[in-house]
Amino acid sequence: MRSYVLPAGIGLLLALLMLPGLTAASVELVWESDNAKISVTVHRYRPSSTSGWATEEFATLDHEAGHSLGHIMAWIDHSCNIEGFVSAKDGSLDVASIIHQQYGKWFRGVRIAEVSVESPDFNATFSAHTFTMNTHLDNTWTLDAWLSAEGSDMSVYALRLYQHFKTHGTPDESDDDMDSQYYALIDAVLGDGEAFAGSGWFPDKRNSVWWGNETLAFQFTGDDISAYIESVDFPIISIYMDVDELIGEVVRPR
């Protein structure tokens, strides 16, 4: 497992903060550069009106390349969102949605959906959203992150993670004890090929925030595929393999 730190001190090219009473924000960015190094964060603080906890939401983009061009849209309405396209040489791209929930004095939680690609030459479209429904605003665990890419010698990584912490009645998060977690991840090397990977939340027929599956999905084609899959409390793993092709889902039912 990788270690994660919420990006409170990240160097920002762009930062959006949702303030009380503000209903929408929108940004569009177009870039073409050499020696690119771009970090973007869309951030929102949401106090709960009913449940007594507060939630911080982040949609993040981290990109480095020898040369790249791209386009991004970032906006806040019901949540934090990033969508865009990049074409890069000698670079990497990482997008993630992060939800930091503070359950009053006694419980806290962190949810992450992340996907990344690294390649000497690649094209990719990507998105990250911290809230995928426009109702039940307190229950913001319906985050997602997706990436579709083609390139050479690609490495692709995707993660869905939840960690639940017990506190000792203090606001100091360094004093918390993690009492449970679940996660699913895939780490793959494709050679030259195409990749689709990411994770999301999918409601069932009841269409309720409290019912639905959390799913990490992937579809890889390449001339030399190797992959590592790991999961904790994602009990359903479906994989299809053929020559130069790997397709699968890792599912946590609700």
List keywords for this structure.
254 residues; 11 strands
Task: Please explain how this structure is put together.
The protein is mainly beta and 254 residues long. 0% of the residues lie in helices and 71% in strands. It contains no helices and eleven strands. Strands 1, 2, 3, 4, 5, 6, 7, 8, 9, 10 and 11 form an eleven-stranded mixed beta sheet that branches. Strand 10 and strand 11 form a beta hairpin. It is globular, with a radius of gyration of 18 Å. The relative contact order is 0.13. The N terminus is likely disordered.
Global shape = globular
Output mean pLDDT: 80
Distance between the termini: 24 Å
* Main sheet record: 11 strands, mixed
β-strand number: 11
Strand content: over 45%
Sequence of secondary-structure elements: EEEEEEEEEEE
Radius of gyration: 18 Å
Low-confidence sequence ranges: 1-23
Query: How many individual helices?
Result: 0
Helix/strand-derived class?
mainly beta
The residue fraction in helices comes out at under 10%
